[in-house]
Write a structure and sequence with these properties.
Elements (H helix, E strand, L loop, with lengths): L2 H28 L5 H11 L2 H16 L18 E7 L14 E9 L2 E9 L10 E8 L2 H7 L5 E6 L2 E9 L4
Antiparallel strand pairs: 1-4, 1-6, 2-3, 2-5, 3-4, 5-6
Helix pairs in contact: 1-2
């Protein structure tokens, strides 16, 4: 069950309990003083008490939730190469994906097994990769201390852009 399903279900339950509490208040107000209807109205009014805890927990969670920083490299950040890679783009019949990597910076993810590392590739103007042909590129990692521990020379990886697999390759030894 996802968090959004759980949240939606909690919201529905909260609304239902609050409506029952309002109905209980109305019944209690309209019922004569010593009666079963007045007692049932009182019981229905008490149903809102568990909601108070949920509302307080929600407020605390909202206060503690950090503001989301967009993942990725800062705009205008200097490119610092951490690794060299050899990349082979997959052949595809989809025109949009036939040449997905253009000259300049390309943001993506290098995936090794079940771990992915946010990366930025420096694609030279005359070195745009073509599908099926290997090309050497420099890569910068968002968290180099984590990525370089897993991406030793010769490590095979898959390149992703969003959820789309663009190609495969391996890490080359750094020169100099």
């Amino acid at each position: 069950m996802t968090n959004s399903n759980r949240s939606t279900r909690r919201q529905i339950i909260t609304v239902v309990l609050l409506v029952l509490a309002l109905v209980g208040g109305l019944v209690r107000w309209l019922a004569p003083q010593p009666s079963v209807a007045r007692d049932l109205g009182t019981l229905l009014m008490v149903l809102w008490l568990p909601i108070v805890g949920n509302v307080i927990a929600w407020l605390i969670r909202r206060a503690k939730t950090p503001k989301q920083v967009p993942p990725g490299f800062a705009a205008g950040a200097v490119f610092v190469p951490h690794a060299r890679i050899e990349l082979v783009l997959l052949m595809t019949d989809v025109p949009r994906l036939s040449r997905p990597i253009r000259a300049g910076y390309f943001d993506g993810a290098l995936v090794v097994g079940t771990e992915g590392f946010t990366t930025r590739l420096l694609v030279p103007p005359d070195g745009e990769p073509a599908p099926g042909e290997p090309c050497a590129l420099e890569a910068q990692f968002l968290r180099p201390e984590l990525a370089l521990a897993k991406l030793a020379a010769g490590t095979r990886f898959t390149l992703l852009s969003g959820r789309t697999v663009l190609g495969t390759g391996h890490v080359l030894p750094m020169v100099g």
